[in-house]
């Protein structure tokens, strides 16, 4: 199975240095800073908060799935963040950025999973924005948006078990009867 992972508000959240919420600023939340060049040539600095458990989640997920990052973010920002998540470049088989997204009549920055080049019946997109998977809605696994809550446990407690269950199915996109055994427990964890 191939698991395509969104970056912002799914695996991490980022705030410009001057706009970090006060509760996060004074919390024990892990963070790191990224500086990158904007399209206009100016520098931007952001503070990035990894979602709790993200390293363990990625390591565990990589034992039974191929991992790909697909972000609507620009490479200048996203690449350093991905490097922090995967410093040895061994977890992610591919990285796709904003230029690989498509515009539809309903939404900009849609992630067309055909661009990943994998079998769609064995590919899922984990994303906090349901419109990101507009072109292949049956392939989307929803994630609650992450804005820095240090008590968040969704990756390890909800998403990992659900994805492990999907990994044994022959068709992850069109097997609703098989998926249904996992959905009630998974959806309950999203609330």
What are the defining features of this structure?
6 helices, globular, Rossmann fold, alpha/beta, 191 residues
Report on this model:
It holds the Pfam family NIF. This is FCP1 homology domain-containing protein. InterPro entries: Dullard_phosphatase, FCP1_dom, HAD-like_sf, HAD_sf, TIM50. Residues 1-166 form the FCP1 homology domain. It comes from Coccomyxa subellipsoidea. With 191 residues, this protein is α/β, with parallel strands linked by helices. The protein has a single domain (2-11, 52-190), classed as Rossmann fold, CATH 3.40.50.1000. The chain is 26% helix and 21% strand. It has six helices and eight strands; from the N terminus they run ββαββαβαβββααα. The strands form two sheets. The chain has a five-stranded parallel sheet, with no helix packed on it. The protein has a three-stranded antiparallel sheet with strand order 2-4-3, covered by helices on one side. Helix 2 packs parallel to helix 4 (154-167).
Number of alpha- plus pi-helical segments:
6
Q: How far apart are the first and last residues' alpha carbons, in Å?
A: 26 Å
Q: What structural class should be given to the helix and strand makeup?
A: alpha/beta
Provide the CATH architecture. 3-Layer(aba) Sandwich
Percent of residues in helices: 25-40%
Order of SSEs: EEHEEHEHEEEHHH
Number of domain modules: 1
Summarize the structure.
This protein has 191 residues and is an alpha/beta fold. It has 6 helices and 8 strands.
